[in-house]
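Sample intake sheet
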Amino acid sequence: MRSQSETLAHASERAYTVRLTQEPGVGFAVEVPALPEVATYGATREEAIESAREAITLWIDDLEARGLPVPEDAEAATTYVIRIAA
């Protein structure tokens, strides 16, 4: 069971689905379906995810500064790719 502080912290967070596409020789391209204006990349998965976190934060900050609504994640789900033997 979550404590009250954990519940409050979770309530103040936003979650967005990000899609990583491996680009040979470059790294990982990132897209955020709920925020199509956000596009970034990283040399590794970890770098791509961190870059996405930064880009999403900057975009949301900009929307809020202009008094515009912040879109919610349309997918609101966790996506996994499961690999199986061929």
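Comment: DSSP finds two helices and three strands in the chain. The two ends are 41 Å apart (CA to CA).
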